[in-house]
Amino acid sequence: MAQPDLYPVPPEWAARAKVDAASYAQLHGRSLADPGSFWLEQARRLDWVKRPEIAGDWSFDEKDFHIQWFADGKLNAAANCIDRHLKERSDAVAIIWEPDEPGEEARSFTYRELHAEVCRFANVLKALGVAKGDRVTIYLPMIPEAAFAVLACARIGAIHSVVFGGFSPEALAGRIEDCDSKLVITADEGRRGGKRIALKANVDEAAARAPSLETVLVVRATGGEVTMSEGRDIWFDAVAQGVAADCPAEPMGAEDPLFILYTSGSTGKPKGVLHTTGGYLLWAAMTHDLAFDYVQGDVFWCAADIGWVTGHSYILYGPLANGATTLMYEGLPNWPDASRIWQIVDKHKVHTLFTAPTALRALMKDGDGPVRATDRSSLKLLGTVGEPINPEAWRWYHGVVGEGLCPIIDTWWQTETGGAMIAPLPGATDLKPGSATKPMPGVDPQIVDAEGQVLSGAAEGNLVIARSWPGQMRTVWGDHDRFFQTYFTTYPGKYFTGDGARRDGDGDYWITGRVDDVINVSGHRMGTAEVESALVAHPKVAEAAVVGMPHDVKGQGIYAYVTLNAGEEGGEALRDELRQWVRKEIGPIATPDALQFAPGLPKTRSGKIMRRILRKIAEGDVGSLGDTSTLAEPAVVGDLVANRVA
Ligand code: WT7
């Protein structure tokens, strides 16, 4: 039987959800027609120390470039995520924590307990001299302390910069230095899929390359052995014993920074994406509420890591601002076996599961058995994020995981956007496998051609956002000009997403993938320039060019072309050495999947590498390389094709 291409809103969802099709149209229409009053009304979702009277104040034009939301408002993000729920929901569970080891007991924290933990953590930070505006780097595994640390920073107005625990000491050092962070919070070790990750040892290595670092605060997680450096390293427990159990929440300006999160771009080092307090928090809360139709009491599980924006917005800030019960999982979805993720759903009666297509594809490989072996009757909604979802994975998620009963919420967004931008609302939007469907209230997407001409109706081109929204990033830390240049110069007056998209005749958006030199590996962004610079840092490498290639689980894999220094010989051993080298320089997610030794790279006469050709070869599409006559040395192409790594 042919599979349908359209999955209409189930009638019970249309009846029950907070937003149905008519109210979505009204909401979105009003958000664009009358943004001032719309956003001041939405701002009531938060608890303000001083309620704002102005909504958006922004211009994307070079002469007057600025972005502000609710600038006269004052609030504290942690108080919004904790304190305001104490009156009525202090005994409701805020966080459920599921450990890596299935046999170990899960832990849970009520809002009252979360308040105590976060206050204690905040007082520890204060005792170490952390003050409002200071940058604090958080390099922790997925343990409850990661949530406490983030919220503790927010509570005292320190700017957190969470670095994913899978990043190398080198990558960590770069991120500590870039924002001049004096304190790193880490743990002895992390655990994932039964393996230990030597986080503290990584920090020790990073510290040697990060002179700004003064203090390392160490949480005891596994009890694994670490070396403590006198005068620099401090056990969390030792300080925590002496601090008070209450800590006032610092009133912050809505435009005061909340956090920095580093992400890869098409050029240069990773950028420190800066989000501010009021607009970001409102965006995380509103999108969590609308896209997932969140009802208090439901268990919400975003199976991401806190090291990525998805974890920031949908494990912590969005759900907690809405008084939700959020599940935090330490381990991997398919460890110790392919059923684990579904067992966790059953164990904690999860209502909403939010994960990435790459995880689904990995799970699909084990067939339907491990899914069918579990109950999953608690599930009512399924979400996806990180990369375009292929229709096969969508249908498997919908039909097998959700037994055909759960709408699939495919959320398109970016680290820069703070939260979901294009996504269906379960009671309002008919679903199409592979389409992120319709814009959230306040989002004004456009499709433009290469010249910036706005295309109307059904069209394909580059995706831009024509106006500001509260969750928009405000700057690149330390480099405001780079912020402007990266996002607002390709199509002047508009935010350029870096993605291509198609809009169909129903006005539904289909994201086609990055149109810049960024590759999406397992839903994580990798800049080709970063991998290239790691490769050329190896003493035997003269030059490197990196492109994406199709990969059936990761979505995209990393394909590297490497030119060696004169006299060096490429072989299996060096190939492995270079792959390990990149892994060590950046982290496991950056490890090239394929590495080809190339005596020469295809360059124009002005010396620019023609990536288009390299991409085609990596994709195996060697029949349509296009015009190669403008190359300085057209002959290199034949060698590249002949030595393609399958
Ligand atoms: C890039 C942003 C959003 C948090 C996780 C990744 C791609 C993200 C989707 C989706 C198609 C998607 C885009 C985007 N992307 N979600 N639902 N459908 N593509 O955040 O690391 O900032 O990456 O991920 O290419 O630009 P990120």
TrEMBL record:
Q: Which residues bind Mg(2+)?
A: V536, H538, V541
One Pfam annotation, family name?
AMP-binding
Q: Which residues make up the binding site for ATP? A: G386, E387, P388, D410, T411, W412, W413, Q414, T415, D499, R514, R525
Q: How is it modified after translation?
A: Acetylated. Deacetylation by the SIR2-homolog deacetylase activates the enzyme.
At which positions is CoA bound?
R192, G193, G194, K195, T310, N334, S522, R583
| Single GO MF annotation | acetate-CoA ligase activity
| Classification via InterPro entries | Ac_CoA_lig, ACAS_N, AMP-bd_C, AMP-bd_C_sf, AMP-binding_CS, AMP-dep_synth/lig_dom, ANL_N_sf
The enzyme's main class, written as a single word, is ligase
| EC number of the protein | 6.2.1.1
Q: Which residues form the Acetyl-coenzyme A synthetase N-terminal domain?
A: 24-81
What SUPFAM superfamilies does the entry give?
Acetyl-CoA synthetase-like
Q: Which positions does the record annotate as the modified residue N6-acetyllysine? A: K608
Identify the keywords attached in UniProt to this record, alphabetized. Answer: Acetylation, ATP-binding, Ligase, Magnesium, Metal-binding, Nucleotide-binding
Domain of life per record: Bacteria
- Residue intervals of the AMP-dependent synthetase/ligase domain: 83-468
Catalytic reactions on record:
acetate + ATP + CoA = acetyl-CoA + AMP + diphosphate
Q: Where is the AMP-binding enzyme C-terminal domain?
A: 530-608
Q: Which cofactor does it need?
A: Mg(2+)
Q: Which HAMAP family did the record assign? A: Ac_CoA_synth
- Tell me, what does this protein do in biology? Catalyzes the conversion of acetate into acetyl-CoA (AcCoA), an essential intermediate at the junction of anabolic and catabolic pathways. AcsA undergoes a two-step reaction. In the first half reaction, AcsA combines acetate with ATP to form acetyl-adenylate (AcAMP) intermediate. In the second half reaction, it can then transfer the acetyl group from AcAMP to the sulfhydryl group of CoA, forming the product AcCoA.
Give the family from UniProt: Belongs to the ATP-dependent AMP-binding enzyme family.
Name of the featured protein:
Acetyl-coenzyme A synthetase
